[in-house]
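We emphasize that the prediction below concerns an isolated chain of 658 residues; any contacts that depend on oligomerization or on bound cofactors are therefore not represented. The input was used exactly as deposited, without trimming of termini.
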Amino acid sequence: MPIVAALAVLWGPGLLAGRLAGWPSRDPLVRLAVATGAGLSFWPLAFLGGGLLHLRWSAPAARAVVLLAWVAVLVLAFRDRAGARAGGRPRSSRIAPRSVTLAAFAGIAVLAAVTRAWHVRELVLPAWVDSVHHSMIVQLLVTAGELPATWAPILPDVPAVYHWGFHAGASATAWLAGASTPVAVAHVLLVYGQVLNALTALALYAAARVLFASRNAGLFAAAVGMLVSWFPAYYAAWGRYTQLAGLLLLPAAAVAFASLWRSRRTGALLLASFLLAGLVLVHVRVAFLLGVLLLVSAAFLGARDGRKPLGRWIAAAALTLLLVSPWLARAVASREVSEALSPTRGAAAAAWPAYNAVPTELLLSPGARELIAVATLGLSGLGGFAGMPVAGRVASALLWVSLLVAEWRWSRGSRQKAARFPWRAFFVLWLWAAGAVFLVNLDRLGLPPLRIAPNSVLVISAFLPLSVACGGVAAWLLRFLRSPRRSVAAGAVFALGLGAWGASNLLDVIPAWTILATARDARALEWIEKNVPRTATFAVRSRPWVAGTFAGVDGGCWIEVLTGRRTILPPALYPSMRDRKRLERLEQLLAAWSAATSLDDPALRFALREAGVTHLFLGENEGLPGPAALHGRPWARAVYRDGPVVVYELRFDPGPAA
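Result of the prediction step, given as a token string:
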């Protein structure tokens, strides 16, 4: 099963790496979060190392590595257990707080897994535009066993420097699951993405657990982020698997760097570098967000402990650069880095202001208003942000009253540890968010734009700091129960209750308009693979997308990736073509084609003929042209029909005056 394969691929190498390097925490859930991040990091670094040694990965090699990793993990676990027994540690008959936390987290994790499986229950292929090129990259890695120079044969003119770390892990999962056909690989991609989505609960728990030194904070962060917030569940609607993987890795790397600040062990240095290197290969934009967090954290920690531990962070960053240098050298040589920061393609440069607009509909997704109110300690709620209702304003006021009372009691020398609010942790979160917003919006201040990430990336990543902040507030309030055992028990009950309530409101997050390929489209793709010559070229419906690019509107966008037949609309990485003249010709054709309501224009038919088009695919989603525009035309013959899904064979006359 792909689910079992995904967990084996991640946790086998990840648990071994964490055990050998030395765990940064005693909490088993934090350890599992770090292991998940280490597993995500292992595969891209393994591909990178294989390329340097001129070795190719394959299904047998991947299976052998995973098997050996699990054998080593089990051997070390048995040895550790034997050592613990020899030490004669006493066992208590009372239920430990850790056990209560583990049980509660297990409930939250089950709810998260069930909702993620439910969200994609009707999908035959991953949703939206990005999934097409994600599937393409995984297929190429599975086939080649290494990182290729370009994305040939589909995009032979595009250098392979797109952040591909996520795809390396997906490729290993495909090998373990025995997926070899393009359709099977696409299915593995869908399952692997949802597994990572569910595992984000571990990342949220670890982030809040370490930042606030509280199990309750971790539980509530996991419950809020996975079952109350619309993100990251909504990532499945966009196929934003690379950013999802990056945000799953970010807390693990942050925990490792926090441990490195306190420890001089070589293992801590290696683990932090390993995780950061993996994050750079998985998603550069998320690595940028981690960089902002580390800068903020260094300022706070340096003010408290001095600058001496900062040297270990600098050493870890230097080692990270060394680990990813082969990929960075390729990226710089391909001019992709300079093009991203200072685009020469006119459409991309002109589109930046619109591309960097704040997506308010995503910022105010279901539940976000309330999460922002808690994360701002009620300030946004008191101010009526986003139309906060009266009940929300009252709750915000109560939070402020509780805060003021606690600060007053602490200032009076109260012995109650709960009296002091964790201001330092909240300042880290607030300054992290403020720093990222500032750097992303330099152009709004009259400065040159950084272009490393748009505001939309921050908005859909905000669930992480928001969930962690909510966990911190909940943990602080529960400390007023005085007894730690009561606090943990109450936290477990409330977190599970919150998770169950949130899950009931999070059953359907994938809107119909993001589903490009339906079951009928999939059947048509299967027919094309069996009956249409491999030399065929398809015209498929397209529409203008972002930064002057074009995207598909139905299952036709999957034809090239799943059947090997060419289409006039390549996967969305095509703007990185080296041949700019060829790119201009392609965009001119797509612009004319996406604006057409029929093929009656002789000039359009001539342009399609010059592009080698032999077939036309009309999928189940509505779009133009429609079947009525082809009816009775002598140059269009329907060779496949399944309801609204039609495949036409086109026989154009030889000249533009036809």
